[in-house]
């Protein structure tokens, strides 16, 4: 697989690992989202994680079901990737 295909597969596997641990297998509830963020992005979310998860869930929950589905998760990852990329020095 190419690097991009590998990245996509890892993204899908990561979501599937955390989704459904406590509820529906195709979405992340608040606890699952918090666990994913704590384990997979510890350097990005160091302080007041509970408040940040609430804020993230509200911002990502486009359909209003109080959970984050895969499409909403991809938006989160893309937004964080863009934010990190913007911090990198331009060549």
Automatic annotation (TrEMBL):
PROSITE patterns, A to Z: EF_HAND_2, S100_CABP
Record GO biological process: endothelial cell migration
Domain EF-hand stretches: 52-83
Keyword Secreted listed: no
Pfam families reported for this sequence: S_100 (PF01023)
Molecular-function GO terms, alphabetical: calcium ion binding; calcium-dependent protein binding; transition metal ion binding
Key words of the record: Calcium, Metal-binding, Repeat
Entry GO terms, CC: cytoplasm; extracellular exosome
Keyword Calcium on entry: yes
UniProt protein name: S100 calcium binding protein P
Organism for this UniProt entry: Sparus aurata (Gilthead sea bream)
Gene: S100P
């Amino acid at each position: 697989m190419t690097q991009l295909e590998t990245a996509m597969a890892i993204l899908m596997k990561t979501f599937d690992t955390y989704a459904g641990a406590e509820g529906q297998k195709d979405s992340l509830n608040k606890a699952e989202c918090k666990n994913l963020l704590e384990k997979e992005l510890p350097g990005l979310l160091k302080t007041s994680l509970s408040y940040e998860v609430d804020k993230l869930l509200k911002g990502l929950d486009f359909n209003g079901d109080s959970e984050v589905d895969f499409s909403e998760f991809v938006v989160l990852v893309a937004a964080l990737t863009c934010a990190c990329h913007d911090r990198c020095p331009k060549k």
